[in-house]
Amino acid sequence: MSGTLVLVRHGQSDWNLKNLFTGWRDPDLTPLGIQEAEAGGEALAATGIKFDIAFTSVLKRAQDTLKIVLDKVGQPDLETIRDQALNERDYGDLSGLNKDDARAKWGEEQVHIWRRSYDIPPPGGESLRDTGARVWPYYMTEILPRVLRGEKVLVAAHGNSLRSLVMVLDRLSKEEILKLNLATGVPMVYTLKADSTVASKDVLGDMSGAH
């Protein structure tokens, strides 16, 4: 019995546009972000997938992206579970700062380490490893069992929380995951085998930025 897991990173947010560290702060989608979510929803609708349940974070940009996608696939009332385990990485003291201002304050090299190392967190925040440490158990206990029962599950979340999942699903090394940037609003459709490994992966729509 093959289940389907679809991962979608939220569309561009207002703070993405302004080059701010967002983390657990809660800005809205931009008009472009809304368009990205609509395009992702239309790409999913074209596949004919009908979902059994959806998961998202407690942050508005992911919830709004999910709502747009569900409208496009004709399932606006789908049962949805919201949990902060799927929240974006917490950037701590960097949250709300312009990335250029952060570089001016702490130095370009230090900010680069915080952004791109696997296990060095910014002050008061989480590393990518810390993010995975809350995402993985939630996935294993709440999401994966449903997929293995043959359900079709949609997850709308964030760049770093989804990178944590993709790292496991695609069996990427720490070095490989640091180079991976997930495109906004572009659905990744996984089918899983009974042993929870990946049978197939299909990235819908624009591949630019998804490398």
Automatic annotation (TrEMBL):
GO MF, one annotated term: phosphoglycerate mutase activity
GO BP annotation list: gluconeogenesis; glycolytic process
InterPro entries to which the protein is assigned, alphabetical: His_Pase_superF_clade-1 (IPR013078), His_PPase_superfam (IPR029033), PG/BPGM_mutase_AS (IPR001345), Phosphogly_mut1 (IPR005952)
Signal peptide region: none
Keyword Isomerase: yes
Record SMART domains: PGAM
Source domain of life: Bacteria
Record site feature (Transition state stabilizer), residues: H158
Pathway as given in its UniProt record: Carbohydrate degradation; glycolysis; pyruvate from D-glyceraldehyde 3-phosphate: step 3/5
EC nos: 5.4.2.11
Binding residues annotated for substrate, in chain numbering: 9-16, 22-23, 61, 88-91, 99, 115-116, 159-160
Reactions accelerated catalytically: (2R)-2-phosphoglycerate = (2R)-3-phosphoglycerate
Keyword Cell inner membrane assigned: no
UniProt keywords, alphabetically: Gluconeogenesis, Glycolysis, Isomerase
Active site residues according to the UniProt entry: H10, E88
Function: Catalyzes the interconversion of 2-phosphoglycerate and 3-phosphoglycerate.
Family, per entry: Belongs to the phosphoglycerate mutase family. BPG-dependent PGAM subfamily.
HAMAP family associated with the record: PGAM_GpmA
Subunit structure: Homodimer.
Protein name listed in UniProt: 2,3-bisphosphoglycerate-dependent phosphoglycerate mutase
Biological source species: Neorhizobium galegae bv. orientalis str. HAMBI 540
